[in-house]
């Protein structure tokens, strides 16, 4: 069965050529810039060749230098700390930027950061950009956008489109090797050499040519003093190999194939019931968008959607049963408003009946799932019925969470007590919520089915019911129970 990797937007697998070149390089790897032997010289030559490939890949201007970091986030943080920005400067970024191209400007510079708005299709509102430039004319020191000094976060763009910094007028650019089929922990920052003509923000090994007894320092040349410590030679070599692979294939061919795939994928995804593209399918064709498709599946958490390819790979005989089980464990969106459990709890003199109802829904839902696993793939339409029944019951059982939060307010009378109990209850609740999926995975993997995990989930209902009934007793935690029960 053919499996399509759907998460290349996060990271990419290595090219075969890249793996071969790195394996060959490791056979004679030596000290980079730290020796004069044959291995050291060969390593320097290999890294310099890779650096030339990377410069060619991004069309780097002649007066720019390359800095290598751990990833794009580290590269942008380095640039933010290197630029001589002050409180009177403006940095324009956008509201659709990832945190990697947002937080560094806010926390590593004193400049004021303004966000360019996005339109309904997720593209930059260029009219708003023009407005900000006009409103803050003379004070905009940096335009930091994906796509004054122009900096581009090219982490998502680099594997999809030809980049030519020189012809596009881009002053600085950053991207990660793991986005370009070279997952060896490397980030790249191209920036003007003039920015580097200062004391390094992270001085260390390789930063200096000489240090005197008096403490005075002769710094290394600007392009070298900021690249401290031992370089990630294998990462640089691997990225150089990936860049060469892409350039050898030719951008005309790659971009043409991708545009065809983008059009077909956008059309196919928009035709699937229950799947919603967050960007209209027509925008992919009209705006020449890259092949990154954010989408949601109605009623399913994104983690379960990500797990679906593995489920399908396990074999067609188990697909219907397993998919229905995953759907049910996700909990179908409740048909009542989220405010229903709190409203019912607030109106009733006692809340124990609501605790029993939610526990009973969980019990019935898990039993329906057990019945579903017994039916197997031969169950036909019964699999679908049991799946939806289990999803409905578990969705109703999820009312236990808003009910528990409501009980915190009903069982406390002072603000400080409410805050303390709420913090304890929610932190403990989230800890249990995290451990639940982990428990299911740990039990499902060795058992090869859903019966053992479901039996474990059923066993959790008894302590849940006892805790709920205890929390739903009359009185508050500050005052004695009217019936004299201990708190």
Description of the molecule:
With 487 residues, the protein is an alpha/beta fold. The chain contains 19 helices and eleven strands. It has three domains: 16-248, Aspartate Aminotransferase, domain 2 (3-Layer(aba) Sandwich); 261-297, no CATH class; 302-471, no CATH class. The protein has helices at residues 16-26, 38-58, 72-82, 103-107, 126-135, 165-168, 222-225, 233-249, 251-270, 281-286, 302-313, 316-330, 340-347, 352-375, 381-397, 400-410, 415-447, 451-459, 461-471; strands at 64-69, 90-94, 112-116, 140-145, 149-153, 172-176, 187-192, 208-211, 217-219, 275-277, 295-297. β2, α4 and β3 form a beta-alpha-beta unit. The longest helix is centred in the last third of the chain and has 33 residues, at 415-447. The protein is globular and about 75 Å long.
What topology emerges from the helices and strands here?
Layout: H1 16-26, H2 38-58, E1 64-69, H3 72-82, E2 90-94, H4 103-107, E3 112-116, H5 126-135, E4 140-145, E5 149-153, H6 165-168, E6 172-176, E7 187-192, E8 208-211, E9 217-219, H7 222-225, H8 233-249, H9 251-270, E10 275-277, H10 281-286, E11 295-297, H11 302-313, H12 316-330, H13 340-347, H14 352-375, H15 381-397, H16 400-410, H17 415-447, H18 451-459, H19 461-471
Parallel strand pairs: 2-3, 2-4, 4-5, 5-6
Antiparallel strand pairs: 1-7, 6-7, 8-9, 10-11
Helix pairs in contact: 1-8, 2-8, 11-12, 12-14, 12-15, 13-16, 14-15, 14-18, 14-19, 16-17, 17-18
